[in-house]
Structures are given as C-alpha cells and as structure tokens.
Amino acid sequence: MPAAMIADTTNNPFIKSLASSNRTTRDRALESLRTYLHRSTPFSELELLKLWKGLFFCMWMSDKPLNQQRLARGLAALVDALQGRENVLGWLRAFWRTMAREWGGIDALRMDKFLYLGFEWVRGAGGEEWKDEGVMEEYLEVLEEVPLNVGDGKIPNGLRYHVVDIYVDELDKVDVGRNAPLDTILTPLRTLGNESLTKAVRKRVQEALKDERLDDWANAAGSDAESKDAEDEGVPDGAAATKGADSEDDKEFGGFED
Asked: Which intervals of the chain are annotated as region Disordered (predicted)?
C-alpha cells in the first residue's frame, strides 16, 4: 500500500478503530459509521471516496480469516444505512472506484480478502430489495461504468475477471427462486463480452454466459407459464408438470486457507 495512503488513514482515530484487531472495537466503529451514513443530506463524491479510502485500509489491515469475512460482510451491509438513491449509488460507485484504483497494489497475501469483499458487493445486484427499491438497474449501470467498463484502460483486467467469474455464482445464491429479471442483470456482462477490445476478456465473459445454471431462469419462466395455462384450463393446483430449479448450497468461502 502506498505510504501516503497509510499516513493519511492511520492518523484518523475512527479508521484506526475499524482496523483494530479487537472485534468489539471494530463492531463499535462500524455502528458509529452506520449512524454517520444515515444522514439525510447528500454526501459529496469526495466525501465518499475519502471514506472508502479509509475502509480499504481497514480491510488491508484485517489479519485473520474470520475477522476478514465479518468485516467484508459488515462493509457490504453499510449500504443499508444510507438514505436516498443518490447517496446509495454514490456509495456503491465510490467502492468500485476505490477497488479499481487500488487493485494493482494488492499483494498476493492480501488478495483473497479483497476477492471476498468483491463477492459481497456483486451479490447486491441480484437481491430482491434492489428490485423493490428501483435501484437495481442503476447499480448495474455502476457495474458497467467501473468494474465491467468496456474501454477504460484504468480499470484493471484483474478486477474485470473477478467480477465476471463470480457474477453467476452470486446471482445463483441470492435468487434461489429464479425470480430476478435475468436479461436485465446480464446486460453488463453481455455488453462487455460484445464490445471489449481485449480478446481474453471477451472469452472470459463468453465462458461465464455458458454457465448451465442460467438455464434455470428459463425453466422457471416456462414452469410459471405452464402453471398459468393449467389454471386457465381449470386444471387443479399441482396437476401441471413443473420442473424446479436446483440451487447449490451456499458454501463457506475457502480462499483464506494458509
């Protein structure tokens, strides 16, 4: 990590508390941050980028697997504290811009915890709460703008690959009922796969879009249509043949093994 970043963050007692090895201290700091984020007035882009600069440092300093996972989940959950669409989207955009800026400086020993943090943030794109709040499509635009950006040379391909690789995995976990608007959610991937100037990126996207689990959404839609037809024809409930979509168990992340 650049020395300037360390100097800028270690002088902040609040950030030091978030980076503490003591779980109680970290939890209290997260709650304080949650309260701060709950304000109704808009945050500026600079304010949010400064916050994420410090939070990135907190993740950098977290040194035990369970602590890393708890912190990653805690940071991802902070979005729920924000009020107003402008603040929510600004917060999400600031996270991805921070990741894009710092990605090249993450060493191999620390990469796993940032990969896990990425898991938590991609997962948000498929959650039902995003659909209800009308934020999902705008979050997908943020993904297109930053980690899945087609032509910005400042976005590391390593970050692109990571988001592409986990996209279907995280959608599979959050949308067990196969109710999400699949075409909409896959738009950023398809755009990247069609328009990227890098052959390796296009190939990576094509592989992701061939995932057999994506067929589950089509099967679920077909089952719904069959059930509706059966009801219209007066067939008793349960008589229509349906095929359920299997989902894999949510496995514990295993990237932190020594």
From this structure: 213-258
Instruction: Kindly list the domain boundaries of the chain, sorted by start residue.
Output: 3-229
pLDDT in tens, 106-140: 999 899 999 999 988 887 555 555 555 567 888 89
Question: What whole-number distance in Å separates Cα of residue 44 and Cα of residue 228?
Answer: 48
Token pair in block for residue 145: 């703008």
Query: 3-state DSSP call for residue 232?
Result: helix
Give the up-direction half-sphere exposure of residue 107: CA atoms within 13 A in the CB hemisphere.
Answer: 5
What are the structure tokens assigned to 159, written together? Answer: 């970050």
- Region 41-54 average pLDDT: 92
> Per-residue pLDDT averaged across 228-254, rounded?
47
* Residue matched to tokens 């190939």: 203
> Reduced to 3 states, what is the DSSP secondary structure of residue 121?
helix
Tokens of 182: 């699949």
Q: Which long-range contacts (CB under 8 A, 24 or more apart) does 39-45 make?
A: 39/83, 40/83, 40/84, 42/84, 42/86, 42/87, 42/90, 43/87, 43/90, 43/91, 45/90, 45/93, 45/94
pLDDT, position 115: 93
Statement: residue 105 has pLDDT above 90: yes
Cα–chain center distance at 172: 13
Q: Which two tokens stand for residue 210?
A: 């061939």
Q: What is the pLDDT of residue 220?
A: 72
Instruction: Return d(Cα 219, Cα 210) in angstroms, integer.
Output: 15
As a whole number of angstroms, the longest Cα–Cα distance in the chain is 72
Six token digits for residue 191: 């755009």
The three-class DSSP label of residue 223 is helix
CB 95 within 8 A of CB 52: yes
pLDDT tens-digit readout, 7-29: 555 566 767 787 677 778 878 88
